[in-house]
Description:
Layout: H1 5-17, E1 25-32, E2 43-46, E3 52-54, E4 60-64, E5 69-77, E6 80-89, E7 95-101, E8 111-112, E9 120-121, E10 128-132, H2 134-139, H3 145-149, E11 155-158, E12 169-172, E13 184-187, E14 190-191, E15 210-217, H4 221-224, E16 231-237, E17 245-253, E18 257-267, E19 272-286, E20 303-319, E21 322-336, E22 348-364, E23 367-388, E24 391-415, E25 418-437, E26 443-463, E27 468-488, E28 503-519, E29 522-533, H5 537-541, E30 544-546, E31 549-552, E32 560-573, E33 577-601, E34 605-628, E35 633-649, E36 666-674, E37 679-688, E38 691-692, E39 700-701, E40 704-715, E41 719-726, E42 734-736, E43 739-740, E44 745-753
Parallel strand pairs: 1-7, 13-16, 31-34
Antiparallel strand pairs: 1-4, 2-3, 2-5, 5-6, 8-9, 10-15, 11-12, 13-14, 15-16, 17-18, 17-44, 18-19, 19-20, 20-21, 21-22, 22-23, 23-24, 24-25, 25-26, 26-27, 27-28, 28-29, 29-32, 30-31, 32-33, 33-34, 34-35, 35-36, 36-37, 37-40, 38-39, 40-41, 41-44, 42-43
Amino acid sequence: MYIKPILISALILLFFQVSLQGETGIKGFVFDKITGKPITGVHLKIQNSNYATTTNESGSFFFESLNPGNYKIECSHIAYENLTQNFVVNQINSSELNIMLRPTIYSSDEVVITASRSNDEIKNVPARINIITREEIENLPHLNIDDILKQAAGVNVYSPGGMYSMRPVITLRGLGGDEQGRTLVLLDGVPLNKGDTGGVTWSRINLDDIERIEVFNGPGSSIYGNNAMGGVINIITRRPTKPIEGLARIAYGTYNTLMTNVNVGAYFNNGFYYRISGMYNSSDGYNDLPAEFREEPDYSVARFMNEYNLSTKAGWAIDPLLNIEFRYDHYRNKKGEGEKILSPDGEYRHFDTDFVNLKLNGNKGNFNYSLNVFHQHENYFKLDERIQGGSYSRFDVKSDRIDQGAILNLSNIFTKNNKLVYGIEARFGSVDGGDYYVTSPDSVVNKGKLDTYAFFIHDEQAFLNNKMSLTFGIRYDNARFHDGSYASSDGAWVGYLPPLEDHNWNAISPGIGINFLVDDISRIYVSWSRGFRASILDDLCRSGWMWVGPKIANPELGPETLDNFEIGGDILIDKNFKIAASVFYSLGKDFLYYVATGDSLWGKRPIFQRQNITKVGVFGFEIQSSGNLNEHLRYFADYIFNISEIGQFDKNPELEGKTLKYSPKHQAKAGIVFNPKQFSFTFSAVYKSRQYTSDDNEKFIESYITFDSKISKTVAKKFTIYAKAIDIFDHQHIDSDYYLSPGRRINLGLSFTF
Length: 754
């Protein structure tokens, strides 16, 4: 793994902050009394002293330098009943203590980590954050992660083929549904967006590995930098909590779809744990080309899918000061494009990925740290075959995409009213790819690297007996594009290609917010923040064919920025019903758009290039409501409105006032969950208004509504049978220019847990 000098600096800073010397005191863990899972964000205070701390991500804590004697420790958390527990410190070693807290009517998802990279109660965060819990993941009808997120408030999912989609795009805040790079996606705090495309291989995430998903709406660049322009989706995975636990699942459904999953894990008293999970999915798929668009000869075929993933995680909570975790994911897939001429499998792609992550974290008193080192390697392949003028041609697209780096995050609680989070980050992206013709000796290859270095600081200050809080953050990013190269044996491109020179740019991303607790169950907030997104390597160094036609690289591209102004609030009625609303306005500058250069390939095909030329305005509001109608019946309902329009566009003024592609003005989502003992029934609906599929708004998808359902029953305590129906009323609709959605899919399954 290629480690830059900044990582060495990070380690030096880390060990200046932390001492590993053992001291007399009290250490231990805090667990949920019902589930046995560790609890983050528990505030612990020793009575009649100034000693206080907070549990970290593994639920651990440590009080150092205590004199021998008897003590009482007070434990508090918004989602749990307060507890006072006695303990004894002896004269030789640190005492160990395990604390069990009983949950209240609040759920443990009220504490989030995405807002500031540290534990925060959601009621104190001046932003809109939504949580998808493990229970909701179990109850919601879904076949993949797209189906889960499409029902989340504030989320826009563009995935026309469902599980057969090549590149699902999941975005926030109306910034256009065809640009994944404007929404940052994290896996346990590690960025998954690829430097080459900005996209995410969503299908490689095993749903049974997910503990919860935190969705941070609005720019998060003051903390996370690049890609967090519209928001952050943080997927947090599960850790074992029992001496041995596991699950095996098998399901079969529409389009000859087989889905299997197995996982096993264990947690030991010495703090060591492991989890191994694997999945295998296959499907014959469906033909998504409507009959009216087929021509003779008809080369359209069903889009098939095969994939498997092996994920391993092992960790050791040595003590509160040092927790080590290692993760390795191995993903392989093959997805059909829906066209077959001569190749035995027709056109297809694969996104084979290997992912490695090493994490160190811990706390000492009021100091917490986390160091993430990661490496992601995607081997991308696409088989493309065509018939033009009766002549057959085929070329294979091959790309090695590597994303790696390190993130050091530190936090200090200086007083009960002040917390400071700060850190440094280094990310390195590279691509080595090309189009290699099989039916001719031609090839078109490209290479490039993009390195980003950053530091950030985030301060939280409480006032008025913690009724009011002020947060301020700022982040500096420096990026360098280098080692770009392009070569083509096709003489048609000669004279059009720009020199790929090295290029540097800088970005400063500030953010400020005020949060006021009206009472224990209500709050209002106001915030302003700036987000940015750097260009992707594909636009910086690749010349070739895109959906717009022939395009050439532009190594001079700078970042696009977005200023977001927001006001919102929450009301909790009788601790059972919650209403939340947010109003926002965003102004984007230097947005990246394809622009015709004025040149033409072969004298007839206009050549395009990405340029920083567009201003964009987004106005919207979100209203959410959820609650418990009785002990077993829960509802949720959300409405999202936004107008996303192209503003000033000097080089293409006819597009001014047009709506961004795949950005519906209206979205509505609602559902009920009936969940008595050992039985569950969920019924949900998603509505989307008209979406434009072209910049000039001449092409569009009509509005549609789909309904999903799931029913499950636990038998013999460990076995669960279930049935899922996606698009239950078979409202098969045009979902991308002229491609059909999959329509109704029914999935029957059986799972066994231990």
